[in-house]
């Protein structure tokens, strides 16, 4: 994972018009996992959709309302229900009268590594968008694309008029996505990545990081990275026999910020579960993993 840039270069609470139909407001929640923070997107000119309203933060909500002004909001869309993405949906809906739509609600106990990845128990959509369903306003059409992997309920949203894809946390502009079991699923993630690779989107707008100008190349590289990590795990188990995940992380993530070790361990676990499902690895009762 990359080091976050100087926050003076990434102002929060300011509407940046990054394309004719697309505005962006950065939430004030930078961290080793959110990079500079969660980016909320405003789609449209005369009427709007809001994608990923962000965390429960009064300053961010105020910034969104200021950016919206007197324009009607047709829909508030959430890519998934982690706490840095969806909690502002309810108060923004109360202020604007817009329906909350998008991903399905999901709350479960997760022993994942980061507080901002916990699920949002307040999320209660007025409408759940299925794969391929659309919502539209004046001059814009958003189509839902089911992309499970980071979470089982994750959606991306395609802006048809711009040939652009809002990728939430499925593809980020600065790092690979954390896949944290039990809900995060590596096999689902790889299938979703293949689905994106088969598309012809011209640009990605992720929830964290800058726009991705050559998305197919990035997706291909991210898939290759996951395959390389899988190969590292298999070779580690071939050399060392039955082993626990912390030992794998210590060898495979040398030079990485130690604050990210727990997240790395979750991704290693996701790979091991995938290898188990394919008959390549298996878990022992003592928490060690071995090749079959």
TrEMBL record:
Residues annotated as domain Metallo-beta-lactamase: 37-208
Organism whose genome encodes this protein: Sphingobium agri
CDD domains: metallo-hydrolase-like_MBL-fold
Protein name: MBL fold metallo-hydrolase
Lineage: Bacteria, Pseudomonadati, Pseudomonadota, Alphaproteobacteria, Sphingomonadales
Matching Pfam families: Lactamase_B (PF00753), WHD_BLACT (PF17778)
Taxonomic superkingdom: Bacteria
